[in-house]
Amino acid sequence: MRTLVLLALAGLGAQLVDGSLGMAHGVISTVLLLALGTSPAAASAIVHFAQIGTGLVSGASHARFGNVDWKVVARMGIPGAVGSFLGATVLSRMSTAVAEPVMAVILLALGLYVSYRFTLRGVPRDNLGKPLRKRFLVPLGLVAGFLGATGGGGWGLIGTPALLASGRMEPRKVVGSVDTSKFLVAVSASLGFLLALGSDGVNWSWVLAFLIGGMVIAPVAAWLVRFVAPRILGSVVGGLIVVLNARTLLNGDWVGATTALSTPVYALLYALWAAALTYSIRAYRQEKAVEEAVEERQPVAA
């Protein structure tokens, strides 16, 4: 029972981050499940089954607040569904000994990218309002869907930064569109895992725990996306993903790092994480000061 409560709280926290930032639900949930000893394929399956419900509620909530571009949802979500089905099939056929380090490397790379993307570059606003082309959205959805299924997370981690980097959509609509299209991806990935693993390969009580936690907070997260500071939250989430997956790699049999090696690595990662977060907070405050000065038509104090 204690495990189910913790999983529900984890699902709540993961959906709060995902619904307000457009990423990291799958990664946060998968890392926790792997720490509990779940196999990579089963962990990804549990997460995607839960995301069917959370994605549906989150999408409806974002649509209610006007955060969704339905053209982007269709052009990105459909190829994403194809990619996620293929990714689920591939992961289900990999041995655990191979799948664990592969998943950890994918998640670590995604965490590093998110940290770099939001800490140093922030949220671009160039080209706002220009249409996104199919030749950009289709391959983006296909790749994000595939890596999302094989890595246990990645749909939002790839899709959200890519759409933000285009500078053609408001951040709140990027988050809402990516979260809404996740429903299609989750359904397709779940079907792939169900065909490959069967229903016995999934712990349904854990799925329910994640589902309840995520569905409870999804409407709140959709509302918060209008006020949250993506730059700061991105640095927090990126650092968390990096630290957790570095731990997975260092503790695994494929590395088998000793305490003498792992301790300085952790110290370095935590120091870099703290530095990134500090930089993001300062940069965000400077951006807000500039915006307020422009609105008031007053010069910014040095």
UniProtKB/TrEMBL annotation:
Belongs to the 4-toluene sulfonate uptake permease (TSUP) (TC 2.A.102) family. The chain crosses the membrane at residues 72-91, 98-116, 136-159, 204-225, 232-250, 256-279. PANTHER family: MEMBRANE TRANSPORTER PROTEIN MJ0441-RELATED, MEMBRANE TRANSPORTER PROTEIN YTNM-RELATED. It comes from the Bacteria. Keywords: Cell membrane, Membrane, Transmembrane, Transmembrane helix. It is a multi-pass membrane protein. Its main location: membrane. The lineage of its organism: Bacteria, Bacillati, Actinomycetota, Actinomycetes, Kitasatosporales. This is Probable membrane transporter protein. It comes from Streptomyces lutosisoli. InterPro entries: TM_pro_TauE-like (IPR002781), TSUP/Inactive_protease-like (IPR051598).
